[in-house]
Amino acid sequence: MSKKSDWPRWFLASVLLLSMATLAAADDGCKAVYGKGPDRFTLATASPGELGLLERLSTAFNREHKVSICWKKAGSGKSLGLLQARQADIIMVHAPAAEQKAVAEGWATQRTLIGANEFYLVGPREDPARIAQAESAGDAYARIAKARAKFLSRGDDSGTHKRELALWKQAGLKPVGAWYITTRDFMLATLRRANEVGGYFMTDSSTWVAEKKELPNLEVLFRGDPLLINIYHALRRPGDMESEPELKYASRFIDFVGSGEGQEIIRTYGKRLYGEPMYQDAAYARQYE
User: Fold this and answer.
1) Looking at the 3D structure of the chain, how many domains does it have?
2) Where are the beta strands (DSSP E) in the chain?
3) Residue 127 shares a structural domain with residue 171
4) Residue 55 CB: number of other CB atoms within 10 A?
5) Is 128 in the same domain as 255?
């Protein structure tokens, strides 16, 4: 058989092997794996992974440690569940009350303040609910409900969803009706849908900075309430570092993120590309704890 006729068979075999590798990665739940070292730990988070900050931190960490870091894409609620089920070694989340409960119950440790961003209330430029005139986040939410203007909720028990529910409660409201749209999707997907349908949404500032040029129908209409500051902590599952080497590297990674080098990465990340940083560091976040 000629080389020419052998080529399709070789090509199909390569495609098959690539597909098998892709399926294997999917089976272990990793959205991505950073590094190629023999030791591996698993980290669950949403926005820092989706926006590339986790990859940047992992690259810097691996200059010395040479480990594989499996990223599982999960909002704060699901990340906490993965940590409790021992399906993640580290999480990076923004759900302070749930984090404190996890530490108190003994299934999370090494809780470390790592940084912050903030929530923006974005919506259609015509602002039918007039939230740009609101005096507080609760007032903005009350105006949206009164106008029965489209509002998109992630509805996924993420840190964003938990904060949204707290703000509705502060406003003395329970949102129901066709105007209240639940997506059960991640931040970026829900933000893009808000742009499509002309609805209001509470997005984190990091996602907005990265995506705003692609959202012609939306603008930031309300921000600045201290209740909209979004504080991130890293937590690790407890265990024996001698028998579970992944925990040794997980612990070192948290220390790195809190170090001078890690904090410099966080407070400057995105500035070169977008003209402004996407996150604030732990020193900034500390004033809102």
Assistant:
1) 2
2) 32-34, 40-45, 68-73, 90-93, 109-124, 151-153, 180-182, 201-204, 218-222, 229-236
3) yes
4) 16
5) no
Measured between alpha carbons, how far is 85 from 105 in angstroms, rounded to an integer?
13
CB atoms within 10 A of CB 161: 21
Q: Is the dihedral of CA 193, 199, 202, 203 positive or negative?
A: positive
Angstrom distance (rounded) from CA 35 to CA 255: 18
Two structure tokens written together for 232: 């991130």
Q: Show the tokens assigned to 82.
A: 């993965």
| 67-114 pLDDT tens trace | 999 999 999 999 999 999 999 999 999 999 999 999 999 999 999 999
Using H for helix, E for strand and C for coil, what is the string for 78-111?
Answer: HHHHHHHCCCCCEEEECCHHHHHHHHHHCCCEEE
Structure tokens at 79: 């990340």
> What's the one-letter identity of residue 245?
P
Question: Based on the domain organization, do 39 and 169 belong to the same domain?
Answer: no
Same domain, yes or no: 191 and 253: no
250, containing H or E segment: helix 245-258
Residue 242, number of CB atoms within 10 A of its CB: 8
Q: Is the pTM of this model over 0.90?
A: no
Length of the chain counted residue by residue: 289
Q: How far is CA 31 from CA 57, 87, 104, 157, 207, in A?
A: 16, 14, 30, 20, 18
Q: Residue 9: what are its φ and ψ, rounded to 5°? A: -65, -45
For the stretch 161-173, pLDDT in tens is 999 999 999 999 9
- Whether the CA torsion 74, 79, 81, 85 is positive or negative: it is positive
Q: CB within 8 A of 9, min separation 6: which ones?
A: none
By CB atoms closer than 10 A (0-12, 13-18, 19+), residue 19 is exposed
Tell me, yes or no, whether 8 and 88 share the same domain. yes
